[in-house]
Write a structure and sequence with these properties.
There is one protein chain. This protein has 659 residues and is of the alpha/beta class. It is 49% helix and 19% strand. Strand 14 and strand 15 form a beta hairpin. Helix 1 runs antiparallel to helix 2, helix 7 packs across helix 8 and helix 14 crosses helix 15. About 2% of the residues have low confidence.
């Protein structure tokens, strides 16, 4: 072969090899660049999903309204997650339909949409219905090609939706709804992203469960289940708020407490179901009478409260109208006509008081006087009633002498741990050993201590006496025993708000050498009504010093549940008023169960007070209450009797054999 031909051939082969190498290199780097781009997009989507989780968790912590929470959650998913549409649907147990509860993005897509959990329907075979029914995540990467999306295919194409995912919202093992997310991109949902979105659905499920339970507790604490009216707690809150408006307008308000005469006889004669119908009818009449210018509430079995703006009207004229409405129109039940009357006590704002609690108290005082006069009587808070209260002045003088002469003594009531059946500690309760009248119970003098301000000195004495008792008494040899003592709202207001008092308290405990964990302060729910943030800060200082904090009479006061989680209390004390009806009264059972559920959710211990029967003890133990106290075990006892009781205490005397 000629040299020139060989050279030409070599050049051609070299060019071909070089071109092939160039093409191969280009292909390699192109594929690599494409993979890097796809990885970058995947990372960006995962990062967005992480950001969605962060923002929604932050939202859940701060949220107080469920509807706003769900609306904002769908907004975050769309705006932060980069999706076209997000909606939360809840299952309607009556129809089996999944109804939109909140949505953001291309929400017009949802107009007239029908989604079901029924697998026999086309609308129940889609991703949303399947996710709810089977409690698993369903992802559709190509809406136009997936037969499960047939009922909504045309609508989805109109809005440019190309892929979707449906994630079940599972609460207590049951799918209550779904979180549905749509994208305008095909195959938009990666495995990692879906896993993170599952966490979002789980967080939303937790929020719904928690807030619905909280709303249920609010309902139980502030509304009357029988009549639908507010209860004493809500009425007090309404009146307190309303009086601020009236005060600025210099207007008048009538506060009325009424009690149905002989209701016990009506209940006995007609039976409880018809008695309940009577209460409902009275409640309806009061609600209509109050209209937009007032509020009606049910305080107790047959006691109601009414607040009315009377402007320039004569209060007597208003009361006569109400009296006729109640007394002159019989209640018809199944052909029977029942005539009722009511005794009424009244107080007028601002003449009889400026505070809601004050007006209610004075109206109740007037009601008590009206009932003494017979049935269908009306009594205004008056100067004569005021004269009766002058006796309080003499009582206050005697209380000052009692403090000076050390006439106060501590009684002790044991608390029993239901798990170990051993004595967990004692509640220290103040008594007044009057030199002439004998032993006076706290209900007859503590209100006067609070009103006079003497509660500050007496409260300090109680604390010091409790510390001395722990140090010196053989009752408290067991280091596990805790002594608790009460601090009322007014006492806290007068005593704990004194400059330096909390520091003095802490230093007193420290100087005594007593382990602060052996002391517990019982505060009432009234503390949550005023200066809540300041109250929490003060109690937090006490808690940080090692003293325990218990919320006394839980469920009877005006609780602000949004602050309860921040309150540094380790214990919720279930009020006697809810325990006494156990296990037969349905309302009491449900309230106690709800309080226990709330306590368990917040990680707090529970103590049930007022246990008087074995049946109550068995029921409370079955519910999981931690500790109990009450007459079933022992009444409050002076120190000597308490020591003897401890020596004689045997669990088998009060409890049943363990299995």
């Amino acid at each position: 072969m000629e040299p020139s031909l060989v050279l030409s051939t070599l050049k051609a082969v070299s060019k071909a090899v070089l071109l092939d190498m160039i093409l191969e290199s280009y292909s390699y780097f192109a594929v690599r660049e494409k993979r890097l781009g796809e990885a970058k997009k995947t990372i960006e989507r995962v990062n967005r999903a992480f950001q969605v989780i962060h923002e929604i968790n932050d939202l859940i912590v701060r949220a107080t309204d469920l509807n706003k929470l769900l609306d904002n959650a769908t907004r975050i998913i769309v705006e932060t997650g980069g999706f076209a549409l997000a909606w939360i649907g809840m299952v309607d147990p009556q129809t089996g339909l999944i109804l939109p509860r909140a949505a953001h993005g291309l929400t017009d897509y949802l107009k007239g949409i029908k989604v079901s959990i029924d697998p026999s329907l086309p609308e129940g075979q889609g991703p949303t219905g399947t996710a709810a029914r089977e409690k698993k995540v369903i992802v559709v990467q190509a809406i136009g090609e997936d037969p499960r999306f047939l009922p909504w295919k045309e609508m989805a194409q109109r809005f440019g939706l190309r892929s979707a995912s449906a994630l079940p919202i599972v609460i207590a093992g049951e799918a209550k709804g779904t979180l549905n997310i749509y994208s305008t991109r095909y195959a938009s949902f990666t495995d990692k992203e879906v896993a993170l979105l599952e966490e979002v659905a789980g967080d939303i499920a937790y929020a719904i469960d928690h807030m619905e339970k909280e709303e249920e507790v609010e309902r139980l604490l502030f509304w009357d289940g029988l009549t639908g009216l507010g209860n004493h707690n809500r009425f007090t809150a309404y009146l307190a708020s309303h009086l601020q408006i009236l005060n600025s307008e210099k207007d008048h308000c009538l506060v009325l407490i009424l009690d149905i005469d002989r209701f016990g006889v009506i209940n006995h004669a007609l039976g409880v179901p018809k008695g309940d119908l009577v209460l409902k009818e009275i409640a309806n009449r009061l609600k209509v009478f109050a209209g937009d210018s007032g509020d009606a509430a049910r305080f107790g079995a047959d006691e109601f409260g009414l607040a009315l703006d009377i402007c320039n009207k004569n209060p007597l004229t208003v009361i006569e109208e109400l009296r006729r409405l109640i007394s002159l129109h019989p209640i018809r039940l199944d052909g029977d006509e029942i005539s009722v009357s009511a005794s009424m006590g009244l107080a007028v704002f601002p003449e009889d008081g400026l505070q809601a609690s004050q007006l209610i108290e004075r109206a109740k005082m007037a009601l008590s006087e009206a009932k003494k006069q017979g049935e269908d009587q009306i009594c205004f808070y008056s100067h004569e009633l005021f004269e009766k209260n002058l006796k309080k002045v003499e009582l206050e003088r005697e209380l000052k002498e009692a403090l000076k002469n050390r006439e106060f003594v501590l009684f002790f009531q044991p608390k029993i741990d239901l798990l170990t059946r051993e004595i967990a500690g004692f509640e220290a309760l103040i008594r007044w050993q009057h030199p002439e009248k004998g032993l006076i119970p706290p209900g007859e003098f503590i209100p006067f201590l609070e009103e006079s301000g003497l509660i500050v000195e007496v409260g300090k004495w109680v604390m010091e006496e409790a510390i001395r008792h722990i140090k010196e008494s053989p009752v408290c040899k067991d280091s596990r025993m805790v002594i608790s003592f009460n601090v009322s709202f007014k006492q806290f207001e007068k005593q704990f708000e004194q400059p330096g008092f909390i520091q003095e308290l802490i230093e007193t405990v420290k100087a005594s050498g007593v382990d602060p964990k052996r002391l517990q302060i019982e505060v009432t729910e009234g503390l949550l009504m005023k200066n809540t943030r300041e109250t929490i800060e003060k109690l937090a200082r006490i808690h940080e010093a090692g003293l325990g904090i218990s919320i006394d009479d839980f469920g009877t006061g005006y609780s602000s549940l949004q602050y309860l989680k921040d309150l540094p209390a380790s214990t919720l004390k279930i009020d006697y008023s809810f325990v006494k009806g156990l296990p037969d009264e349905r309302d009491d059972v449900e309230i106690v169960k709800t309080i226990l559920l709330l306590a368990q959710g917040l990680g707090k211990k529970t103590v049930a007070e007022g246990v008087e029967t074995r049946e109550q003890l068995v029921f409370l133990a079955g519910l999981g209450v931690n500790e109990v106290q009450g007459f079933y075990f022992a009444r409050p006892m002076p120190k000597g009797e308490c020591i003897k009781w401890i020596e004689d205490y045997r669990p088998e005397t009060y409890f049943w054999p363990r299995r």
